[in-house]
């Protein structure tokens, strides 16, 4: 069976902001005719499962205005520095949000966060061989990051937190489950960061 190739007939920008742009597209449908689809085009993001030598993962708790509460998450951030390598973005975000550097990096998973309306992707890295950022070199956090709670939780406990409904952030759920699976397979499924 041949797959239908959906084509965008028209596209109208509805909103443009610093992080995303919203378009209303008219798209050909495999059943015939066209349909309107609103699409959020986003810069994309990176996230980090930072795992220490005793199998604890670094988690942050941060206020998220869209859902009106603080969520347990992975250290993560937007791809907002032009030309910056994704692994370098991940390392920067880990240092800024969790005051941690890593000596070893692997690619864990790639995810589309909400493909029904957004093209946003997130690449999740596994960081190991962790060291603390020296006090004098720590990033000064502002806005909603000013009161980040940073903790380390045993990876198996973090998985239990997912199933108890305590970790609901999609990137954290995907990254933690992938890290646990990769660990259980002796890290054989990891990909190089390049």
From TrEMBL:
Pfam families: NUDIX
Entries under CDD domains matching the protein: NUDIX_ADPRase_Rv1700
Domain of life: Bacteria
Sequence ranges assigned to domain Nudix hydrolase in this UniProt record: 41-175
Annotated PROSITE patterns: NUDIX (PS51462)
Keyword field: Hydrolase
PANTHER family hit by this protein: ADP-RIBOSE PYROPHOSPHATASE, UDP/ADP-SUGAR PYROPHOSPHATASE
Protein name as catalogued: ADP-ribose pyrophosphatase
Organism whose genome encodes this protein: Paractinoplanes deccanensis
């Amino acid at each position: 069976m041949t797959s239908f190739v959906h084509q965008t007939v028209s596209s109208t920008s509805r909103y443009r902001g610093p992080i995303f742009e919203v378009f209303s597209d008219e798209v050909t449908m495999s059943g015939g005719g066209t349909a309107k689809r609103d699409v959020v085009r986003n810069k994309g993001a990176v996230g980090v499962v930072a795992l220490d030598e005793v199998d604890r993962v670094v988690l942050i708790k941060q206020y998220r205005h869209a859902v009106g509460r603080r969520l347990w998450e992975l250290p993560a951030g937007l791809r907002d520095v032009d030309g910056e390598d994704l692994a370098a973005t991940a390392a920067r975000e880990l240092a800024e949000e969790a005051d941690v550097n890593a000596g070893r990096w692997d690619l864990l998973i790639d995810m589309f966060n909400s493909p029904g309306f957004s093209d946003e992707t997130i690449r999740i890295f596994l960081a190991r061989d962790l060291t603390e950022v020296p006090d004098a070199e720590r990033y000064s956090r502002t806005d909603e990051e000013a009161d980040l709670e940073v903790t380390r939780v045993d990876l198996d406990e973090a998985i239990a937190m997912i199933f108890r409904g305590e970790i609901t952030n999609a990137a954290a759920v995907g990254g933690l489950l992938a890290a646990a699976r990769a660990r259980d397979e002796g890290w054989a499924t990891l990909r190089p960061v390049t």
